[in-house]
Amino acid sequence: MYCAAYFNRAYVTNNNDVWLCCKRRIPVAKYDGTFDFFYNDEYQRLRNIKERDPGCSACWRDEDTGVKSLRQRYNQKFGTNGVVDLNHLEFEHDNICNLKCVMCNEKFSTEWGIEKFGKENYKSFLRQMILPEEMPKNLKSVMFYGGEPFMTNRHIRTLEKIEDKGAVDLYYTTNAQFPLSNQVLDFLHQFKSISITCSIDAIGLKSEHLRRGSKWSTTVDFIDRLISYKDDFFSTALSAHTTIHKQSYMELVEIEKFLISKGIDIEACWDVGFVKDPADWKISELEAMEMYFIAEDLQSNYVKNKVQARLRSSAG
Hints:
Number of helices: 13
Structural class: alpha/beta
Distance between the termini: 24 Å
Number of domains: 2
Mean pLDDT: 93
Oligomer: single chain
Radius of gyration: 19 Å
Strand content: 5-15%
Shape: globular
């Protein structure tokens, strides 16, 4: 079944695996600093497939429960013309991060690696994607995930290799603990637009408990700075993402109130995701029932419907 991701995008992990997208976490190639993989046999197979591919079960589940899937959003945004052209890239540059979020691990945080294996074994758990030799010619967007992308200059070193910067939209997901310098902002201003998604799982001291090592005041200051920069640097809205697990699901209403107070569009610019691994952070059936009714108090129809549809699907 058609998905624009088969034709125009790739996701490169901090372990140099290539995925089609963040939902289909099945390697289709190994990254070597080039994009030759985009024409390999597995990509070709998926482009020709007419039925649902089992590896894309996350999207099929959403569609079967009435939630707009990532596949549907890709197709709506990027079209279904069947042209093969690598326009959209997603990068996990490394696992370098200053936080130990409760639901995370050493694959995405060096701080967790230090706690588990010791600082003297840093190289054993450090993950770093090979930086691109060059970037695709017809690039339209680049997304950066962590670790924490603003903790190093690796994103800058990648972006410097883009020829037509003014044609490219940039997307970052950040823990909001590293304010952007004027030097970085001046460089990013060369691009078509910049969209920054802040990870917010709770408010205040609860946020600091769940995202260990963070300071809530720094998060608020980061967001306020971005809002003040918006007219000069940002042509797309500031966004937020909430990871739902055993200690965050009850925080949704307070998070929504905070986002509204900052002028963030809770329908278009707030998304949620559910923890799958580690399993002991997944919400229980009883917690799911409580969360279903908590969602009733949300003003965001998108988040409310996504949460309730997912819980109905899990119950079924």
